Amino acid sequence: MTEPLPFSRTASPVSSSAATTVPPGPLPLVTATTLAGSVRSKIATLVPSRGTTSFKARGPPGTLSLMPSPDFGKFEKVLRFGEGRRLKRLQEQAAYIATLEPDFQALSDDALRGKTAEFRQRLENGESLDELLFEAFAAVREARWRESQQRMFDVQMMGGIVLHEGDIAEMKTGEGKTFVASTALYLNALPGNGVHLVTVNDYLARRDAEWNRGVFERLGMTVEAIQNMMPFDERKRAYEADVTYGTNSEFGFDYLRDNMAVALDNIVQRSHAYAIVDEVDSILIDEARTPLIISGEPETAARTYYDFARIVRELRGAPATRKAAKGEDETELSGADYLYDEKHKTVSPAQSALDAVERALGVDNLYDPRNVQLVNHLTQALKAQSLYKRDVDYVVQDGEVKIVDEYTGRIMEGRRWSEGLHQAIEAKEGVAIREENVTLATITLQNYFRLYEKLGGMTGTAKTEEKEFVEIYNLHVVEIPTNVPVARIDQNDLIFKTKDAKWNAVVEDIVARHEKGQPVLVGTIAVETSEYLSELLKRRGIPHNVLNAKEHERESEIIVDAGRAGAVTIATNMAGRGVDIKLGEGVRELGGLYVLGTERHESRRIDNQLRGRSGRQGDPGETRFYLSAQDDLVRLFAGDRIHGIMNRFKIPDDQPMEASILSRQIEGAQKKVEEQNFVARKNVLKYDDVMNSQRMVIYAQRRSVLDGDDTSEEIRNWIADVVERNVALFTESAEPEEWDLDGLVAQMNALYGSDITVDELREEVEQTRDAIVEEFTEDALDTYTEREQSFGAELMREIERYVILQVVDTRWREHLESMDYLREGVHLRAMAQKDPLVEYRGEGHAMFEELSSVIREEVVLTLFHVEIAQEDAQALQPAEAPQALSYEHETPAGADAIAAAGGLAAGATALAPPPPPQRQVVKEHADVGRNDPCWCGSGKKFKKCHGA
């Protein structure tokens, strides 16, 4: 007896090598017999050679594909020819997998489970995933049969191969995409990095994980699903599984939360090695323009700014003018509480100012690392009080502080000073401090999914958007043939003159179908439209279900019942994707599911999704769209032509037209809208790429700190950079005689306590900028070494990591806000004949360079002034208190999700125990200063002689 071969609906789980007749199908089929000899001899052509991969490199994360955009019109025939060759190759590979079935059927359950360990060992021995593909897929097929008595079809094997190769498998509704994904997921989970299956809602993530759990467990792998509001421990456990199911927003928000974490223990995601995106067109195209945003309450309450404004108002400031002698403090000599430098916009508080702040706030030590933000508040309050003048630097209008452009004298609408300065000035003037939620982290779905080393996708409708998939994600679309031919009948559109005539015809058609018992699925493009139609059906006494945004909790229940006899279901924009509509008893004989579209969507793909709900797996079905010349799409893009045709033939209002010329006009309108939307999404990506490159730098720096990398060398480089930056600031003139050496010495004293005097600079430094930089850099590094020795190297590393995280996080949030302001207003520059994108890139780059400099300077300043006793080291904790965060995508997540998922405030950083007591080195001549002449009489400075 011969067995039906792959692609046959009735195929047996047992493969045969006997010759067999293949039933007609969508593609000419290749039998296992004809392949038994040839495929094995051609195996080298089916498996990429060692050292190569079958998927495409995407370039660095966050960059657009470097491959040229294909001209889909000019090369369409070439592409179609290439697709045919690829389908033939996939067909041969699937048939070869079928020849392996007897070997896997002979395995015991334990032996089948042991295959995973064998595959992993072979990977370690140098084999590639491509070389393991056939056996791995055969193992999944056998596990599926043992788990559910369902044999996976060869077309499903073909789809799985496409997913593994990093492309999109377009498979019609009901072809078993959930099963298809399990093959590629299993293969790509073998390296042990964890793989992700991304879907559109929590229900599908949970359902698909459960459907596949038994299969993966039979193969010795674990599978979990992420759900919204899942507790942190469960979420982390889900990511530790071999296969993790979840929604696009959950994966994206977890990535952002991981990059807000203050300890490695708070990070949940392991890697971005491989992901399959289910309903890939919905996630990567429809939702691409909506960024994921985590926002929270302002880090500092308005009350704090008002408190500092009140405190500094009582302090006495003086301009930095007097030159201090060696070993003297200019600020203390002045008798003022602080000095300010109007030229360089700097302030330097005296000890009396610090004492006043500590008393007012009830703080023991302002320079404790846990009080980093308080030091910044003091600095900004002093600047606001002494350096920024009302009606010169800013004006107060309508209760707001507005910046005045120093060059034009015009108000710079929408611009704000950063680092808390704007709020400090608002507090000084007594106006309301703007406390709206601030953006803490953000990313677009486009850039999130481009983080993955390899990405695959599944959907029933992607071919019309292939150009966008290729340009943005380097994903090609492969149309997988159906297991049995499609029996659905797609009727021509009926076009009416008016909406009223259209709705009357729609209701009559629904009533007629309902009376004979045929189920009807009605597609609308808006909630308002679905409710209008529902009201019309109620008047006719037709029972029906409505599936729209207001009924999302009953989504799967409603859509599953849509195939029973007599059911009438109204769905908005084809809600319920991912849930199959199975025909009820007797419905087949009535013609199957009837899908009625009440309006064409802007995208042909959405219309195809609606049609695709009928005729699953060879079931009968019928579809038709009802349109009117007053529908928005028709009216805006093809209204004049269609009205002209109707008027020419004098068509009555209630008489529909059914002509291919009209359908072509409407399809042309849809193509125009699709192109417009594509351009808009690509434009969004270009802007976000500016932020993405900056985001990658910041997140990489944070991760390096969290990983415990040695920060000492980087800090020393930062010290040298800050010194050089400050020297350049005070020596801008080309003439050394015009350099502000007094201001430079005062600045270095404020930075790290330098005791180098102006006279020493003039005597010992040959009045070259490089020599001055070298002198101060060496002095600053010596000072930092002394601080490290006093704290101990281990504690100093912990303090460095703590301060870097605090400063980077604070300044990054401010930078996000500044970039938001820039993006909101940059489009206006087009009026001045400037390209807004070029302007955004240029200014964004300059702002990021400034951000990097500010971070370095603030970290260095803090580390030079930090004071902490070793017995207090264990108490060093992240300064942020828990705060309520909001998540923005299409619907905000709960405010407590951040705490549950291990975000900003989840847990504290516990420092290592203090190092053992260091043996004290007693130095002779301990009273000699670093810059004093050496006691040995060499004439050199002590630090360059016996103090070296």
From TrEMBL:
E.C. designation(s): 7.4.2.8
Q: Show the catalytic activity.
A: ATP + H2O + cellular proteinSide 1 = ADP + phosphate + cellular proteinSide 2
SecA family profile domain ranges (all copies): 72-658
State the residue spans of region: Disordered: 1-26
- GO cellular component terms, A-Z: cell envelope Sec protein transport complex; cytosol; plasma membrane
Q: Which Gene3D superfamilies match?
A: 3.10.450.50, Helical scaffold and wing domains of SecA (1.10.3060.10), P-loop containing nucleotide triphosphate hydrolases (3.40.50.300), SecA, preprotein cross-linking domain (3.90.1440.10)
Question: Which SUPFAM superfamilies does the UniProt entry name for this protein?
Answer: Helical scaffold and wing domains of SecA (SSF81886), P-loop containing nucleoside triphosphate hydrolases (SSF52540), Pre-protein crosslinking domain of SecA (SSF81767)
Q: Where in the cell is it found?
A: Cell membrane; Cytoplasm; Membrane
* Low complexity: bias regions: 10-26
The topology of this chain with respect to the membrane is:
Peripheral membrane protein
Summarizing the function annotation, the protein's role is: Part of the Sec protein translocase complex. Interacts with the SecYEG preprotein conducting channel. Has a central role in coupling the hydrolysis of ATP to the transfer of proteins into and across the cell membrane, serving as an ATP-driven molecular motor driving the stepwise translocation of polypeptide chains across the membrane.
Subunit and partners: Monomer and homodimer. Part of the essential Sec protein translocation apparatus which comprises SecA, SecYEG and auxiliary proteins SecDF. Other proteins may also be involved.
Family membership noted in the UniProt record: Belongs to the SecA family.
The name this protein goes by in its record = Protein translocase subunit SecA
Tell me the organism: Gaiella occulta
